[in-house]
User: Fold this.
Amino acid sequence: MSERTEIQEKRKTLEKTVSQHCLVLYNDDVNTFDHVINCLIRICSHELIQAEQCAWLVHQKGRCKVKNGSVKALRAMCEALLKNGLTAQIE
Assistant:
C-alpha cells in the first residue's frame, strides 16, 4: 500500500469517527440537580464530577452535549433520559 493510499484510509477512518452523533440534554424548570446528576450517572455512565459539570452547563447554557457515539448507541440512553422526565435529543 502506498503512503498516499494509507493516508487516505486514515482520513476516511477519522471522518467516520468525527461524524458520530451526540446526545444533548436540555434545561427545564422541573427537575432538580440531584435528579439530573443521578440520571447521568445511571444512564450515561458518567462519573460524579462529569455529571455535576454537565448538570451545571445545562443550567447555565440551556443545553449540554452529554455523550458522543453512534445513533444506535445513543438511542437507548436518550429514551431512558426521556422516561425519567428529562429533555434530550440526538444530534
About this structure: The chain is about 60% helix and 20% strand.
